[in-house]
Amino acid sequence: MFRLLAISRGVALLSGMMAIGSAHATVVAGADYIKTATTHYLINSAGSSATYTPSFIVIGADGSEPSENFGPFSISGSFDVERYQSTASPSATPASSGITDKLLFTNANVTLNGAIHSFDFPSFFSLMTSDTVFQSEPASVGCSVPLGFIASCLTMPNPNPSSWSGTLSNQAISMDGFAAVDNLRAGYTYHIQASVVPLPGAVWLFASVLGLVGIGQRKRRSN
């Protein structure tokens, strides 16, 4: 009985961890898109950094430069990438040629080590211009909520918008962007490299044990 209990607990643990990156259809933005997958990425701090550009630089009366540190700052943390597939029919509208899949960054826990100004990780939908290439949506500039979760987004154009672009796969993501801090010109120019968080070796070992147990049981039943 105790062995069966341990196995059942292990199955639950394995199922929960394997859910990372699995597909599950969730309708958003009306019926235009469905969420097909969520993948968790861990930032590679050694290959990720950001520099800060201020709106103004105040020079001391003696000509001394400001003491503020503008970087580069290393970046650490993690985030999720949700992928969304369009449900629109290619023949439904003459503008269907412009329909693309999208992705959304969520659950971001990102730190710029040593920076004193806040850093806002992208929180709007990104356009997938190919199977692996993405970029920020021009229409999302100035919106206060992720585009697609409301019927419309009408705001004054932001003179200092955030933007980003990059490439991703099921194993890694690389992105470059600008995260605005104010509406003038201040912000962070950044490069981020991240990879999928691997499952612990113990989980793979447990999965192998479960497979061997199943094979043994089938052999006993066949005998």
Keywords:
2 helices; alpha+beta; disordered N terminus; 10 strands; 35% strand; 223 residues
Explain this structure to me?
- The chain has 223 residues and is an alpha+beta fold.
- It has one domain (21-196).
- The protein has two helices and ten strands.
- Strands 1, 2, 3, 4, 5, 6, 7, 8, 9 and 10 form a ten-stranded antiparallel β-sheet that branches.
- The model is unreliable at 1-27, 93-97, 140-155 and 202-207 (pLDDT under 50).
Q: What secondary-structure arrangement, pairings included, does this model have?
A:
Elements lengths: L1 H17 L7 E3 L4 E11 L5 E5 L19 E14 L15 E11 L12 E4 L4 E4 L26 E6 L3 E9 L6 E10 L4 H22 L1
Antiparallel strand pairs: 1-2, 2-4, 2-10, 3-4, 3-10, 4-5, 5-6, 6-7, 7-8, 8-9, 9-10
Helix pairs in contact: 1-2
